[in-house]
Amino acid sequence: MHTQTLDRWQHEHVFLGEHHARNERKTWVVIALTTTMMLGEIVGGALFGSLALLADGLHMSTHAGALLIAALAYYFARRHARDARFAFGTGKIGDLGAFSSAIVLAMIALLIGYEAVLRLISPVPIAFPEAIGVACLGLVVNLASVWLLREEPEHHHHVRVSDHHSHHDLHHHRDHNLRAAYLHVLADAATSVMAIAGVSAAWLLGWIWIDAVVGIVGAAVIANWSYGLIRSAGRVLLDILSDPKLAGRIRETLETDGDRITDLHLWRVGPGHFGVIVSLVTHRPKAPGSYKARLATIGALAHVTVEVEACH
Question: Domain range for residue 59?
Fold first, then answer.
């Protein structure tokens, strides 16, 4: 059989998110914003002898590094999308990037918490006007970045599902890599807001300790975001069944007329894309293509393998 005749039976394994290119562009723009702000603070701190500027610039460098992980994950996944060495495509590289970024976010939370505890034990003098000015400047850049990386509402018209399933289907399309980048700039924005509130309260009320307390609260919030991202990205990387309801829909669709599923493997291969391997046993076996045609109504299934055994 000539290779050309196999084309209709073969398909690509490109399982990138629907807005992969758009999200990649937005991530690079935010990196440019963050890096410019970071360099400005470090240079300004060195020139003017400002410890607050220098410290905030070095803090932003950790977020810039995490954002770079996200951007490179987008680039690598796109560059190797059709590389046959990746058995199920490169759609999960974004989840690997998100998992790595979440670890960095957890380390940032620990660092903020550690510094806050040290300041609670041994308070240090605060240059109030300068500290508030730096926090306000950082907040403007961070809010712009948060707006750029926000998860926009999607309208998946090609997915034929009922309203009952719409929430779960939208969750299938979540780009963990974009989520990781978003949480980093959101954490930076939250840190700026809490710094403004804590330093202002310390300045007006004379409570130097309140700045450290606000830092501990902020560290706890960021750690919680990190844990949620590690958990969701880790489940994808370990091929854990993330949506039992989707598996239930597959069973409802195929288990008719005496057909029974004996083995079902369902996993996410990329944002909005799931792979499924189904083994069926039946008294009246049909061609695998007929079962695949039934599953075509479930738009999230991008890679379907069906095995049929006759029950004697």
Answer: 12-237
Q: Which residues contact 281 (CB under 8 A, 6 or more apart)?
A: 259, 260, 262, 308, 309, 310, 311
Within-domain flag for 303: yes
Q: Whole-model pTM?
A: 0.79
DSSP annotation of 122: S
CA distance 158 to 18: 12
In terms of DSSP H, where are the helices of 80-127?
93-121
**CATH number of 228's domain:** 1.20.1510.10
Per-residue pLDDT band at 11 (split at 50, 70, 90): low
Clarify whether residues 257 and 205 are in a common domain. no
Query: For residues 108 and 190, what is the distance between their CA atoms, to the nearest angstrom?
Result: 13
- Same structural domain, 141 and 267: no
* SS3 category, 57: helix
Q: Kindly report, residue by residue over 112-123, the tens digit of the pLDDT.
A: 888 888 878 887
| Per-residue model confidence as pLDDT tens digits over 262-299 | 989 998 888 888 988 899 898 888 888 888 888 888 87
